[in-house]
Amino acid sequence: MIPAPVMHVLVTMAMLTGMTLAPVMPSWEPDPADIAYVSRTIWGETRGCPEIEQRAQAWCILNRVDDSRFPDTIEAVVLQPLQFQGYSPNFPADTFWDMAEEILIMWHNGEREIPADMCWCEGDGKHQTFRNEWIKTEDTRFYP
Fold it and tell me: What's this model's pTM, rounded to 2 decimal places?
C-alpha cells in the first residue's frame, strides 16, 4: 500500500506532466501447498521420464482441475482415490519445486503446454503417456 502523502505527490506529478498512473498489480504467487502437491506427484509418477513428460504430468493435474468431471482444486485432484498412485506426502517436494511453480504460474496466466483434454495418464517409470479418454478407443489422442 502506498502511503497517502506519497500517492498525493504521484497524482500531482502525473497531472502536471500529463502522464497517467497505471495501477500496479502484485504478481501472483501459487500456494506453496499446491506447488508441493504437483511437485510430489511429478516425483512419484515421472521422475525417471523425460522432462516433457514430467511437465505434462503437472498439466494433467491442472487439466483435471479445469475439467468439470473432476474436483476443482489441486489437492482434491491429486488425492482423489485410485487416480495418482504415484503421489505420497512423504515424497520430496524440492526436486521438482521450481518446475511445478513455473507451470502453476503459466496456468494462472492462461498459458498451456499440452492440450486441455489430456486428463489421463499411464506409464512405467521410464515413459509416461497422456490421453484424452479414460478408456482407449481408436479415436483416442495421445500426448506426447
Answer: 0.80
